[in-house]
Amino acid sequence: MGGNTILNKLTNKNKTNMKNAKFIVFEGLDASGKSTISKRFAKQHNLQLLGAIPPEIKAWLPKLSATKLPEATFSYFTLCNLLMAQKINDILAKGESLVLDRYFYTSYTYHTRLLKAQMPEAIKKVYNFPNLPKPDFVVFLDVPQSVRTNRIKERSEDLQWYGDAVSMQFDLTQTYFDLFEELKVNVIRIDNHKNSIQETLAIINQHYS
Question: What predicted TM-score, i.e. pTM, was given to this entire model?
Answer without folding.
Answer: 0.90
